[in-house]
Design brief:
Elements: H1 2-12, H2 18-21, H3 24-31
Amino acid sequence: MKEESLFSLANQNENTPLADRVRPQNLDDFVG
């Protein structure tokens, strides 16, 4: 379910720069 949340978050923040979207916390949650 975490994957879905991250994908939804990314879709909501399409206007946000990739570097700003992909933060260590997000990567940690995605990998974890």
